[in-house]
Each structure stands twice: as structure tokens, then as C-alpha cells.
Model the fold of this input.
Amino acid sequence: MSQIPPLIRYLSAAVFLGLGVLMLVWRKGPNWWIGVRLPWTYADREIWDKSWRLAAVFLVGMGVGALASWKIFFISTAHLLILGILYPIYLYRRKYGTIRYWKDAGWLNYRPMAKCPNCGYLQKLKPPGNPAIITCEACGGTIRSE
Ligand SMILES: [Zn+2]
Done:
């Protein structure tokens, strides 16, 4: 860990720690430039927020790692990249029973789809997205309720 010039070490620490702490204290809704920007996070605000927090923690880990140990840095980076993608997909799958989504025209207009556990019917959820209670259009059963 000593071969890397201190300037690079401090710069990376400042960038990642700064971004991580910023993301811990400040929350922003789905947007095009910061956050875990995936169709599954765009489609669901709850999943967006949870992925945001996870990313913030790993960014702090990267910042601390840049100062303390490049091993921690690389482990945090790997976790951020892998879990940052798998975690929202997992949450989405658990919530909607599918990883499919649909999209209207427009930038961030991803919408969730939901699969009925009773009849297997896959339906597009209409805006406003992320309803607490989802009823199956085909069989009338409850897909999800909170
Ligand atoms: Zn159904």
C-alpha cells in the first residue's frame, strides 16, 4: 500500500468519503446523475432509497480504505459494483415477483411490473408507481400488501 503516491491516496479518500458522507446526510429522489441508476431503482422509490444508502456505506468504505488500506478500498469497490446491482434486483424480485419492468417514453419513466403468485399473471403497474397494495388484474388476488 505504500507504492501509491500520497496525493492519489488523499484525493481518492476525499472524493469517495466526501461523496459517501454526502449521500448519507442528503437524499435525492431518482435522477439522472447520482445514485444507483438502474431500471429497478428508477421503477421503485423505496428500492431507490435503500440502494442509495447501501452505495453511501460502500463509498465511505472506499474513502476510509483509500486512507487506511487499499485492500479495504478494493473490497469496498467490488462490493459497491456487485451488490449495487444485485441488491436492487433482489429487493425488486422480492417485492414484485419478477425482475421485469416497463417504460414509457421519457427519461426516468421506468415502471414496475408485478407477477401474481396465485395465477402467474404479469401486469404492468400504472402510475403512480410503487403502490402499497397490488391487486391482480387477472384473478383479483393480492400480489402484495403492506
Ligand atoms: Zn392472479
Observations:
- Residues 102-144 form one domain.
